[in-house]
């Protein structure tokens, strides 16, 4: 299952850490794009996997 997020100490409580990877590209069209990949470990309701987004 999921890791316990730790004690609630208010709205700025830290949760369980998970890896975030990023890549920065200066594209030929003059736009800088950042790709983020977030890995989610196996949980009860789904298999482990990745979520990705590219921001320009």
What is the compact description of this entry?
It contains no helices and three strands. With 56 residues, the protein is an all-beta fold. The model has no long low-confidence stretch (mean pLDDT 86).
Describe it.
By secondary structure, the chain is mostly beta strands. It has a domain at 20-55. The chain contains no helices and three strands. The chain has strands at 20-26, 32-40, 49-55. Strand 1 (20-26) and strand 2 form a beta hairpin. It is elongated. The termini are far apart.
Shape: elongated
Through-space gap between termini: 35 Å
How many DSSP helices?
0
Uncertain stretches? none
User: Percent helix among the residues?
Assistant: under 10%
Instruction: Please list the strands of the largest sheet in the order they lie side by side.
Output: 1-2-3
Number of strands: 3
- What structural category characterises the helix and strand content? mainly beta
Radius of gyration: 16 Å
What number is the mean pLDDT? 86
For the biggest sheet, the summary is: 3 strands, antiparallel
Q: How large a portion of the residues is in β-strands, by DSSP E? A: 35-45%
The SSE order reads EEE
Keywords:
mainly beta; 56 residues; 3-stranded antiparallel sheet
Write the layout of secondary structure elements.
Blueprint: E1 20-26, E2 32-40, E3 49-55
């Amino acid at each position: 299952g999921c890791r316990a997020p730790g004690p609630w100490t208010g709205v700025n409580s830290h949760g369980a850490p998970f890896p975030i990877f990023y890549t920065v590209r200066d594209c030929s069209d003059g736009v800088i794009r950042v790709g983020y990949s977030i890995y989610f470990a196996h949980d009860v309701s789904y298999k482990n996997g990745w979520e990705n987004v590219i921001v320009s």
